């Protein structure tokens, strides 16, 4: 029997259940994958808590890596024994499992240079970083960005990639220890929002101009300071709501603060086109395989410890990437 984590009602980490499940054989266009590692992402808490609604009961998790064990009819580009990884949204929900059935079209073959654990720690985070730095805005060398949660899994990849593009990175963190982590991964400056005024400090660091782009994964508590950190006609990228959803606001505020732009992107829309997905995957895997971007797994959990893993994630005890090891 395979093992799976499910939830039957939305709520806190305690709603997660570790259960046995019969996986069965793959149907047409499907494969059965035996997981080696599963990604733990903050987005998982949005499903569990009800921010993202799905029919219940439901599996959880959108990212994992492993080995193809069986192939359904019509699958021609994968073979038993292939190492694969995947990420997505609703169409990949259920990654918290030891094995599963999944559409072959969603899978990405892993190059020899990238281990399954590394893939589980970087597929969602890495592709999120990829579209943020390569698709959201036409960055030019010398521009400055503000990156919230700079010591997190996505933040550490974004900051390293930004340096490859010649950008100056200002990262926010909650502790001095996380500031050290952020600086070690490309941040030129760090701001500890626990005791510093973010917008004021950004203005000081940019000689009063502000930054071209803010990547804000925190949401409710940072929204206004993020807007106040932007230069005229700057771009606010709302990529998450770790502190809660952003309350309704009058769009006129964007005009008053300098004709600002705002977007709330989602990874699924940037990997929906197979050709664009392949481009982002190739660039990401190339940087990681060459050592230009380091993927650091800071926390490892057993799948049966999903409740504790979610508690650690939401209490901001984690840094970098976290995975479940199968």
Automatic annotation (TrEMBL):
Domain of life: Bacteria
A GO molecular function held by the record: mRNA 3'-UTR AU-rich region binding
Domain Enoyl reductase (ER) span(s) in chain numbering: 11-324
Entry GO CC: cytosol
Positions of transmembrane segments: none
InterPro entries linked: ADH-like_C, ADH-like_N, ER, GroES-like_sf, NAD(P)-bd_dom_sf, QOR-like, Quin_OxRdtase/zeta-crystal_CS
Stored SMART domains: PKS_ER
PROSITE patterns, sorted: QOR_ZETA_CRYSTAL
Keyword terms of this UniProt record: NADP, Oxidoreductase
Family matches, as NCBIfam families: PRK10754.1
PANTHER family: QUINONE OXIDOREDUCTASE PIG3-RELATED, QUINONE OXIDOREDUCTASE-RELATED
Protein name: NADPH:quinone reductase
